[in-house]
Amino acid sequence: MITVRVQTEAFDLGAETHALSDGRTDIGAVASFVGLVRGGEIEAMTLEHYPAMTAKALEAIAAEAAGRWPLLGGTVIHRHGRLLPGDPIVLVAIAAAHRGDAFAACAFIMDYLKTGAPFWKKEETGGESRWVDAKAEDDAARDRWR
Amino acid sequence: MITVRVQTEAFDLGAETHALSDGRTDIGAVASFVGLVRGGEIEAMTLEHYPAMTAKALEAIAAEAAGRWPLLGGTVIHRHGRLLPGDPIVLVAIAAAHRGDAFAACAFIMDYLKTGAPFWKKEETGGESRWVDAKAEDDAARDRWR
Amino acid sequence: MKLDLLYFAWVRERIGLDGETRDLAAHTVGEALVALSALGDGYASAFAEPHRLRFALDQDFVDADAALREGAELAIFPPVTGG
Amino acid sequence: MKLDLLYFAWVRERIGLDGETRDLAAHTVGEALVALSALGDGYASAFAEPHRLRFALDQDFVDADAALREGAELAIFPPVTGG
């Protein structure tokens, strides 16, 4: 019920949410999230992933969300490859009858994805590149759902 | 910083979120919500509002959100007039550096809008029409932010 | 007290007007409701259950004990149901 | 125990390989790390701080004490940083 895609191409939030609700009259709420590359000192970011595992991990997270809340559809898209500041990285869109369920499932999937999907970010700054460290606050964000 | 619009026309989530983040590299997160008319027995819904007060009330809610969380932009659109099942009613899109702030502000604005913006829904079912009653759960959703 | 009165949703339908200007013997919102209720069955029906009413004075939500001001805009309506 | 090994991010860079097939004297993930660390400086550097490593066995997250299976795919990588 929640579709997962891992791709290098950009995505379009309007098209994805429209695809979820088009022709349906049971959906009252669509909550969505887009994560983007932040700039500042960062000139580019490369996302590496574990192809054989990535979709499997994202589908397990989506299934967990669908078991916790009454959802009517959803889309999770995560990009990999080299991205520039301002580029979208990740999209989560969740359809439900009621807004509380849609908001909760959308935030839950982002929190679990941050700590449970096999992606690694490498940032380029001033000709140097370095791997991004995992953040303790992402573990804390995940743990609030337990 | 958060733009408010009250209109009869439909809106496009992709265009609205793109307008928030286009050309910027400080935004890491865009959380958004679209509320739609649910069908079932309902054939149509008419939204009445209080024109002199509506934008003022929505702007006060948006300002409260901007005071609570570090936000980088936002858009709130609420439609009025006659809508059909599947039609979008309301859009809230919030940009921030981090996802927690964007999610919280987006959910907060929806919860406050539900109980503090002067709109009234009248549903049409089988040739009859009736005013929708306010829900106690909407008051409860608002009160969790206090 | 001269007031610009506005009615919305089923309050508007029961009274049969979306608004009017009236001079009422009232110093608070609650007193205005009492004065208006005496004007006819539509008003009496609209205001019969005060706990089902909400008020805005010059476009700000207020309680029934709020003080009126000469020339103010007083809106009377059911709890809101937007979003 | 014959294993399909996969390395990601700085683990991959330190070892200089994205993957390899090896027969290791190991029954758990932790024992595989010890066996691999003896193979050279790249491995030793990659696995020097085990608390900074995460593991997946046949594409499921596991702890260091997880039992290996003949022919399994064992991925070794830093904590994930997607999203």
Describe the fold and architecture.
The complex is a heterotetramer, with two copies of chain A (146 residues) and two copies of chain C (83 residues). With 146 residues, chain A is of the alpha+beta class. Chain A has one domain (2-143): Alpha-Beta Complex (Aldehyde Oxidoreductase, domain 3). Chain A is 36% helix and 36% strand. Chain A has four helices and eight strands; from the N terminus they run βαββαβββαββα. Chain A has helices spanning 13-21, 51-68, 99-116, 136-143; strands spanning 2-7, 29-36, 44-49, 71-79, 81-83, 88-96, 119-125, 128-131. In chain A, α2 runs antiparallel to α3. The longest helix of chain A has 18 residues, at 51-68. Chain C has 83 residues and is an alpha+beta fold. Chain C is built from three helices and five strands; from the N terminus they run βαβααβββ. Chain C has helices spanning 9-15, 29-37, 41-46; strands spanning 2-7, 19-23, 54-57, 60-62, 73-77. The termini of chain C are far apart. Chain A binds chain B through residues 12-15, 17-18, 21, 23-40, 85-86, 97, 99-100, 102-103, 106-107, 110, 141, and chain B through 12-15, 17-18, 21, 23-40, 85-86, 97, 99-100, 102-103, 106-107, 110, 141.
The CATH topology annotation of chain C reads as Ubiquitin-like (UB roll)
Spatial ordering of strands, largest sheet of chain C: 2-1-5-3-4
Major sheet summary line of chain C:
5 strands, mixed
Cα shape of chain A: globular
| Level-1 CATH class name of chain A | Alpha Beta
Count of helical regions of chain A = 4
H/E element string of chain C?
EHEHHEEE
Shape of chain C: globular
Distance between the termini of chain A: 23 Å
The count of strands of chain A amounts to 8
For the CA atoms, what is the radius of gyration of chain C? 11 Å
* Proportion of beta-strand residues of chain C: 25-35%
Strand line-up of the largest beta sheet of chain A: 1-4-6-2
